[in-house]
Amino acid sequence: MKKKYVVSRGLAFGEEKDMAKLTSYAKQGWVLERFAPFGFLLKKGKVQHLSFAVDYNKDPDDEYFAYFEQAGWTHMCSGVDYIHVFSSPEGTQPIYSDRETTLEKYEVEKKNTGMVALPSLIATILLFICGNLEGVSGLMEEVLIWSGFATMIVFVFSGMPYVGYRYKLSKVRKGWGK
Amino acid sequence: MARNDSLETGELTDTSFYILLSLVEARHGYLIMQNIEELTDGGFSIGPASMYTTIKKLLSAELIEQYGDGKGKRKTYIATDKGLKLLEKDIKRREQMIFHAKQVLNQKGDRLG
Question: Which chain regions cross the lipid bilayer (chain A) (predicted)?
């Protein structure tokens, strides 16, 4: 079976573009199979005209999936049992139909990423400050600075999506239904 | 739950309004959508993610409750007394809006006629 890997822009920044990319690949017969690191894995099948949508839910049960199924959205795959991708024939009613619940989708994501970003930022700053204090032994300094780099990576991967979701929220607030 | 904005101010969004209206009788969650489409002749439909989110909100605001002990897909909901009261209040609010609109438009009609 032929497979293809496509890179994701990061759902926080490029959700629509990523979904549009999945649609255009499906038209060439490359259909989403599952999430892959920093992207998606597609498999060769028949040509399909599909819309794709992503939703977040940390403890999805059959009830959750039943709503989508009833509305004509097929569950394609999930990442870490939290990010769920659905597809439907083009022209199906979108999964979010009002402003309030769309805002909530991104509010929750903003909060979740923010809850990681802020503490990791503070930890990074503290670790770098402590690592540069006078009187810290050579080994201790190494440990502190390297730990600082580690928390900085956590900060980047939570802080960037946080900014993405904030931007998304402001767009939805301004643009919904106009 | 993040925000209950409009529920806290005692106003229902169109989505919550139609869901609550459907739950005057007990119904399976995933069949509410179908009921609303039939009721409005396809004029109003709710996306599945909006439906799921709104049901969770209505539950946490105690405007609806689970009916019986069905699990997962078999979960059934019904409006609570609190939910029914809010629905009635919102129907009045909406009637007022229509009344005001008609008043203005009729006056305009009179002037033109």
Answer: 115-137, 143-165
